[in-house]
Amino acid sequence: MDVAPTAADRRSACLAALAQGPGRFHEPRRADCPWCGSPRLRVLLRSTDLLQRKPGTFTLDQCAACAHLFQNPRLTPEGRDFYRGDPHLYGAHQGLGGPLADRLLGTRPGDRRHLARALALRALDEPECWLDVGTGAARFPALARRVLPYTAFDGLDQGRGVEEAVRSGRVEEGHRGSFPALAHRLAGRYDAVSMFHHLAGSPDPREELKAARLALRPGGHLMIEATDPECRFARLLGKWWPCYAQPRHLHLMPLAGLRAELTRLGFTVVAVDRRTPHVPADLTGALALVVNGRLPQGDVPWRARPAPLLRRGLRRAGWWASVPPLALAHALDRLLSPLLTRTGFGNAYRVIARRDAGWTPAPPPRPDQPRSGVARPATTSSTCSHSAANAVFSRPSSSR
């Protein structure tokens, strides 16, 4: 059984990584939009790491031509590893208690939300093979089997959780790594591919969409849930809007831009939902981030000296004192959710698109339009074949 490293275990490595300053974790700033190529950019916001409070400043730019939001300058792969690491050591809920904080912040999808996702696709098709990209510990596949008992679920993720998901039987096969890098090995194997809040953290969402097209058979469905940057809470709460999630979110795509790109890649959008995927945690999350920024830091490995016992006690006490206002914000998020999702305050959208059988690349777009890449033909298959040659790892074969 793996034991999570403590702050003391990680301190020397974190301080060594920061020795040259956090600027080393950024790529050069780009002068054009990564989605459409337009040079008409504006700074939308600048923020620090409001969750873990690691050193560094991050900028979100917005394209005036296509409204695409992206981190500029973007984190390097090393930077992404650094800022996404250590979630077990520190977070907005440190000192409050993990399960309670997950409920208040809405950071962990509940069973009902997972089942709603599966039912949304079952209304259109009952797939034989489903690949869940960014599956983590594969909670979605495990729950989706309740409504899709004859579907074989595979998982793909860059973290170690997918290996445990295979061992525990939550997925048939697990693939660890980048989806674009593994897509050629998975060509034409799936009737369904899902990406739940996966594209925002990807360095190149367009490559993820191409990989999905390659992995799908003709007629198969791609289901995407993503943060909606057109949510009115984004303007109301500014940098405290939890869905900005800097520095972990690299791209936030307006629905229109995603739909246009799917069409260019040979998909037909068959369903769009801007209400059901809403996560009622905007007010709670914003308040939690504010409280987190006002309390003293706990014992974290990116500070040279361990936090004294008094400071850690004050932090824990501060979090417990914040429970009543957090609970009130949580109640408001829940009670107002039906109204908010009808008035432009929904913070997420769901798109289901069908992969067309015949497709030729769209003509090159104008500079202010998204650019599509070169098409790669997908290999079709009439059965849901799983083989050790194709999988990174799989559990012992069983009847389906």
What can you tell me about this protein's structure?
- This protein is of the alpha/beta class and 400 residues long.
- The longest helix has 18 residues, at 323-340.
- The protein has a domain at 105-280 and 345-394: Vaccinia Virus protein VP39 (Rossmann fold), CATH 3.40.50.150.
- The two termini are 29 Å apart.
- The chain is built from 13 helices and twelve strands.
- Residues 367-382 have low confidence and may be disordered.
- The strands form two sheets. An eight-stranded mixed sheet has the order 10-11-8-7-4-5-6-12, sandwiched between helices. Strands 1-2-3-9 form a four-stranded antiparallel sheet, with no helix packed on it.
Short description:
It comes from Streptomyces alfalfae. The protein is 32% helix and 18% strand. It has 400 residues and is α/β, with parallel strands linked by helices.
> Strands of the biggest beta sheet: in what spatial order?
10-11-8-7-4-5-6-12
CATH fold descriptor of the domain at 105-280 and 345-394: Rossmann fold
CATH H-level superfamily title of the domain at 105-280 and 345-394: Vaccinia Virus protein VP39
What is the count of β-strands? Answer: 12
- What is the CATH-assigned architecture of the domain at 105-280 and 345-394? 3-Layer(aba) Sandwich
Distance between the termini: 29 Å
Mean pLDDT: 87
Low-confidence stretches are: 367-382
* General shape: globular
Radius of gyration: 21 Å
Tell me, what is the CATH class of the domain at 105-280 and 345-394? Alpha Beta
The amount of beta strand, in percent, is 15-25%
Largest sheet, in brief, is: 8 strands, mixed
Kindly name the structural category: alpha/beta
Number of helices: 13
The helix/strand order is HEEEHHHEHEHEHEHEHEHEHHHEE
Helix proportion range: 25-40%
